[in-house]
């Protein structure tokens, strides 16, 4: 039987919940939106890490001028970092050819919680169609997809939950079974029914959206609502986020960009 | 400002999240429904405990013929226990005058997670009007209410989430602000908009409801959907669930039932 689950937060998710599954990680405000923006604008790779300290240590280890530190704590750029967590900062001029070491409050944690899955992709409104297409394929071929919301401080976030519903609809390809869906998946479809196609409403109603607007990041919320604005499919693999290989039906990209070798993670 | 939060599961909830607040615990399928049924039918008190072992130990310590063990694991009555977790078992004949030691998969854990709150009540469809009235009062007087869903194995359950929305609407008394609501509260109101007044639909769509039907407990799901069938307001206080004192506007009940003294919890 096909199985499509939504998890509203990574909290309580253990390795058995992700192992062998195709996982889509969402943190639409703003981590996964910013990741799509960065890769769409030519960043070579993103390396999500769990803490500021780990980011600094890793940057030092890699020691390349092509590395940029990116990340926020409580929505604000971490002091000394080149970039925050705004998709609008991820311009071609800034990120092309660079490797970004990224740490964010919720998004990074969700990605790291998905380690051990068969494949981990990054989704948001800005890449919904390509992500949805891959989710549909995965559901057809492997019959087992998990949409993992970063949530807000590990609890339910309306923004991610609505995005999960949009992705679930794309994955189901218009069919609307309840069989094979967990309760969170059903509720996320209900939210899409409630808000319709309008990304801006659930994003601006959500606490994350209201908080960002209050802190002067309202334009980030608008950017995150631009469906298919950054049509790239980021994949998290071997601790890096890079554009996914194209689908088998398409031609394989001839030359993968050269990646920095990554040191093993250090206990912190 | 008024603050009305919903938590879709107790996972990640710490003492600061409950401290000083008025908390309503929901596990509509079936723990909180069964608790309402038991107290409505004259049970003296319910004592929720975290494990079968603790239930057996406590029963032995109290050592009274008036004590009944009640509880389920994976929906099925625990071997050796007098009662399972079905509201239909909680008849007047069985429970009147008894103290029930109760352990259930999710409901008990949620109640225990609410310890430290200013007041903890038990809610379900079967007592929605009385619980909603108390929630409305609490929101007016203390301006701070948390509706805590037991969830299903600590993740989102559609049944509890819908019930949370119904209780939130009652607490808000018809007003529909988004200010002061967390994202889960907004989504639970969205679910009520989606399913309307029909308790049976979200309950039967939920995985808990489907699982119960599959195991032959379909009549429990129907019973749990009977709004105001057991109009009692259980309160969790000093490790016991008993009928709440009546509201100040009403006459204080003259004589509280005599309660067994409870031993201190043992480390297990």
Low-confidence segments of chain A, given as residue ranges, are: 248-258
- Count of beta strands of chain A: 10
Rounded mean pLDDT of chain A is 90
Strand % of chain A is 15-25%
Order of helices and strands of chain A: EHEHEHEEHEHEHEHHHHHEE
Strand order of the largest sheet of chain A: 1-8-2-7-9-10
Radius of gyration of chain A: 17 Å
The description of the largest β-sheet of chain A is: 6 strands, mixed
Oligomer: homodimer
Structure description:
The structure is a homodimer of 268-residue chains. Chain A is an alpha/beta fold. The first copy, chain A, has eleven helices and ten strands. Chain A has a six-stranded mixed beta sheet, sandwiched between helices. In chain A, strand 9 and strand 10 form a beta hairpin. In chain A, helix 6 crosses helix 7. The first copy, chain A, is globular and about 50 Å long. The termini of chain A are far apart. At the A-B interface, helix 7 and helix 8 of A face helix 7 and helix 8 of B.
């Amino acid at each position: 039987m096909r199985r499509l689950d939504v998890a509203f937060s990574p909290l309580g998710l253990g390795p058995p919940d992700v192992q062998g599954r195709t996982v889509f990680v969402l943190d639409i405000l703003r981590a996964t939106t910013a990741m799509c923006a960065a890769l769409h604008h030519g960043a070579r790779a993103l390396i999500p890490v769990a803490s500021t300290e780990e980011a600094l240590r890793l940057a030092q280890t890699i020691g390349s001028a092509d590395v940029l530190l990116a990340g926020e704590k409580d929505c604000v750029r971490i002091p000394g970092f080149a970039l925050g967590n705004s998709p609008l900062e991820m311009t071609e001029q800034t990120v092309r050819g660079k490797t970004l070491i990224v740490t964010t409050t919720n998004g990074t944690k969700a990605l790291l919680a998905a380690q051990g899955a068969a494949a981990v992709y990054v989704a948001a409104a800005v890449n919904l169609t390509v992500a949805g297409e891959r989710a549909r394929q995965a559901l057809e071929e492997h019959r087992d997809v998990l949409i993992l919301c970063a949530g807000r401080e590990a609890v339910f976030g309306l923004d991610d939950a609505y995005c999960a519903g949009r992705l679930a609809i794309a994955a189901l390809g218009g069919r609307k079974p309840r069989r094979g869906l967990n309760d969170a998946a059903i509720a996320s479809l209900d939210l899409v029914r409630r808000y319709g196609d309008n990304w801006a409403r659930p994003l601006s109603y959500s606490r994350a959206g209201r908080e960002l607007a209050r802190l002067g990041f309202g334009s980030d919320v608008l950017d995150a609502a631009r469906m298919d604005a950054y049509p790239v499919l980021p994949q998290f693999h071997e601790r890096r986020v890079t554009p996914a290989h194209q689908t088998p039906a398409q031609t394989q990209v001839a030359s993968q960009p050269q990646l920095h070798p990554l040191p093993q993670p250090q206990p912190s």
